[in-house]
Amino acid sequence: MNITQRPSVRHIRSAVVAAGVGLAGLLATGGVAHASTPAVHDTPSGYVVTDSCTGFAGSVSYSPGLRTTVLRSTHAVLTGTTSGCSDIFNGAESGTGTITAVLTGKASVGSENFSGTFTINWPASSGFNPSEGTLSVTESSGLETISGEVTSGFDTGTVLGGQYVVTGKTGKGTKQHPVTKQSYTNTQALTLSRNEG
Predict the structure, then answer these.
(1) pLDDT band for position 6 (cuts 50, 70, 90)
(2) pTM (2 decimals)?
(3) Which of 43, 70, 106, 127 is the most exposed place for a label (fewest CB within 10 A)?
């Protein structure tokens, strides 16, 4: 089963609450529902995490390589493996998935400001189609922050988020030996969230 869209969390929550109030009214009146049953008002709840992966790790390749003190235009390709994935409706998903991002922007060893596109391939056990969209990756004090939006595929319209740190590198950051690759691991889960406010 391939899934690209589903009812919003708000619609499902509203339906469940309304059904519960209707049943309570029916039981309280001895099996007869009355028109005086109070109306149910759904309240905004802000962003709700619909899907998450508690782990993601991999590497980022840079061309041209990063220099320690020179900020310059760079192409980057981020690849990684996701684990511990789960869905708000279906629960935990066995196995692993992947994330890939193709990025461009200005970067040095200690500063990055990238934008581009991403693809998340969910674990096969989920039955979900890939999620594709746009994202940015920025660095502050050694912490890389991912933010973006799913524009096609599974859960279109959700917001992407996550954070990671660099754990290793290939190269020294000099003109002769720029950093051409970094390994990373996450410090926060990779998440998709939907605004239900």
Answers:
(1) low
(2) 0.78
(3) 43
Per-residue tokens: 4: 């690209």
pLDDT tens-place string over residues 123-163: 999 999 999 999 999 998 889 999 999 999 999 999 999 99
Unique residue bearing structure tokens 């030996």 = 177
